[in-house]
Amino acid sequence: MRLFRPLSRAAGAVELLDGPAPFAERARSLGDVARLNGAFGGRLVTVRHVRRLLARLPTDRTATVVDLGTGGGDIPRALVRWARRAGRSIRVFALDLSGPTLEVARGMVAGYPEIVLLRADALAPPFRANAVDVAISSLTLHHLEPGAATAYLAAMGEVARVGVVVNDLARSRLGWVAIWLVTRLTGCGRMSRHDGPLSVRRAYTAEEVRRLCARAGLEGVAVRCYAPLLRLCAVTE
What we know:
The protein is of the alpha/beta class.
């Protein structure tokens, strides 16, 4: 069936969230992302893998995580909520290059002193090698073309002592249809209705992510597929 035929990647396409936008629209779009991340399990996938990696560390010291391309900061918030329930000390560095996006995130992470917001380029994060325990990415990889995506993954591998978690959409025609419907049936704003389906078209397949990880020199990383969630996750085993 045509619906299941391979979908070519929309190389070079630009999402509205990647450009200038009214603050209210940007805030609504980032709120949509956070809401859908929670409703459809994307957030839970990241938290579970981070929790598994941090279990390798002594529990009597503060665990450190950097989120490279944090957007509205919903994943750092979820990690802090988990750590509080678990009685685990944690520090999350939430990094994004966009000043307006970080302004949105600042309001969303109020009440979470464990989260430190940083404005910086995720391809050249301001951290030494092995500076943090875990480097994470959620819905950022698909924004990058292959060369930048390789540099991004390499940067994640360099700063992380224990491992990486790269959670993103998986490109498919079925996924495109599903996201098109979801962004229209769940009250998403104009930017999300445009960017959601385009994000699927910009995303990589599991095999493409494996090749990107290999080019980036990431070792011991497996790509896990979560077909019901329309996601894939590259994680340190």
